[in-house]
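Treating backbone geometry as a discrete language has practical consequences that deserve illustration. The amino acid sequence and the backbone structure tokens for this protein are reproduced below.
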Amino acid sequence: MGARVIWDLEDDPEGNVRHILQHVLDMGEVEDVLLNGNNQVVVSRSSGHSVVFGFTGTGRYIAVVFELVEDDPRAVYPITAYDVPEPGGK
């Protein structure tokens, strides 16, 4: 994806960092998936947000829900991220 990732302050109780930590993920794992241009991006039927699926550097398969904040230069805001089953049922 080749984008800049926008994070809220880590101590913001309503921020994206705290929300991701609630799913036992860290910012690096989310960035692994967000910044990998080979990962598939789809639009969520329920929220209308973009979702990218992929493996983290630690081997977890996750979904990252995000908003495109700026197109040029590309900047994305991760809303949440969570583990999902691997494709093919692994």
